[in-house]
């Protein structure tokens, strides 16, 4: 948890929010914020066509010619939705202008500068939240509740798997930065969830990754990670950018039971729990919408900064998955 400054003299729906980056994720956040009733929305993007696309989709958003112009409008919060390499420098600019920061995952593309950034945010007294939205997914929330209730005992192993066909998701995928330097590691939500459910520090990382499929990108299109934690717990994480149809599953295996979350579809999720001594599984079926977790995430962030309360998914939590990815790069090079 990260605590921001004291309570503001306005409700969270009256906060001024600058959306910096108007690609697909920027358009989604604009739609979500507008739907939540946030009344004062600004947007900027260095690509005029991207900015125009967001404004046409959400006409209530006011356009700014540049990031600097947007900051001059004194936003209470800035959503950093730019390419990963720009997250930290843009977040610093926003905090220097007096704003709290929501930044999309991952925190950065390298650990270089992260320590200094964490100190900078602490000294600025501003809240920084990273968009690890799957922690707000209804299926994950249910699984976390069961774990915290002790339904499966102590967590011993976590298995996370995510795969989707990049060319189907982004027909222009070869022109994206994903294709050049991050690849399947962009799917790090599942790595974050594995670490989050383990609930302890990673002490060892083993990795195999590379461009192994036929989609033709420079960056890894598959990554296999094996993690060892400090106290009798492991995790395996599979990420790929070529699997079809899309599939996502999380298994949390404990000393007295297992929880399985299956949510390959945005509209449907099944959370199952089986415990030692029982021959049957308990299943919870959930109807979901893709924007549900984004709504809950933004509502939490804005209510927290308006009320001066802690935000979830701060820098200290978000850096854990980035540290694993950096270690994965190092281990394969040895």
Automatic annotation (TrEMBL):
Residues 141-259 form the GFO/IDH/MocA-like oxidoreductase domain. It comes from the Bacteria. One of its GO terms (molecular function) is nucleotide binding. Pfam families: GFO_IDH_MocA, GFO_IDH_MocA_C3. It comes from Paenibacillus thalictri. Coiled coil: none annotated. Residues 15-131 form the Gfo/Idh/MocA-like oxidoreductase N-terminal domain. This is Gfo/Idh/MocA family oxidoreductase.
């Amino acid at each position: 948890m990260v605590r921001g400054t004291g309570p503001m003299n306005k409700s969270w729906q009256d906060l001024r929010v600058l959306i910096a980056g108007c690609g697909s994720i920027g358009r989604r956040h604009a739609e979500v914020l507008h739907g939540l009733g946030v009344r004062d929305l600004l947007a900027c993007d260095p690509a005029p066509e991207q900015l125009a696309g967001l404004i046409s989709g959400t006409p209530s958003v006011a356009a700014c010619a540049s990031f600097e112009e947007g900051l001059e409008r004194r936003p209470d919060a800035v959503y950093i939705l730019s390419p990963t390499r720009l997250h930290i420098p843009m977040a610093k600019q926003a905090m220097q202008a007096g704003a709290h920061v929501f930044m999309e995952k991952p925190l950065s593309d390298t650990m270089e500068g992260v320590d200094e950034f964490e100190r900078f945010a602490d000294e600025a007294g501003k809240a920084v939240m990273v968009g690890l939205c799957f922690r707000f997914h209804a299926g994950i929330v249910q699984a976390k509740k069961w774990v915290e209730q002790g339904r499966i005992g102590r967590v011993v192993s976590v298995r996370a798997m995510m795969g989707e066909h990049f060319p189907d998701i982004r027909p222009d995928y070869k022109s994206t930065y994903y294709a050049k330097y991050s690849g399947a590691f962009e799917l790090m939500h599942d790595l974050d969830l594995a670490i989050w459910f383990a609930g302890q520090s990673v002490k060892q990382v083993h990795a195999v990754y590379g461009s192994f499929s036929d989609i033709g990108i420079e960056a890894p299109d598959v990554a296999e990670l094996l993690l060892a934690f400090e106290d009798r717990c492991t995790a395996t994480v599979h990420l790929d950018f070529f699997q079809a149809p899309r599939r996502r599953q999380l298994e949390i295996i404990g000393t007295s039971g297992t929880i399985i979350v299956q949510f390959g579809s945005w509209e449907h999720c099944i959370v199952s729990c089986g415990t030692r001594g029982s021959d049957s599984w308990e299943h919870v079926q959930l109807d979901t919408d893709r924007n549900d977790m984004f709504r809950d995430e933004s509502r939490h962030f804005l209510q927290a900064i308006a009320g001066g309360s802690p935000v979830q998914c701060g820098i200290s939590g978000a850096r854990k998955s980035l540290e694993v990815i950096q270690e994965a790069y190092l281990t394969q090079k040895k």
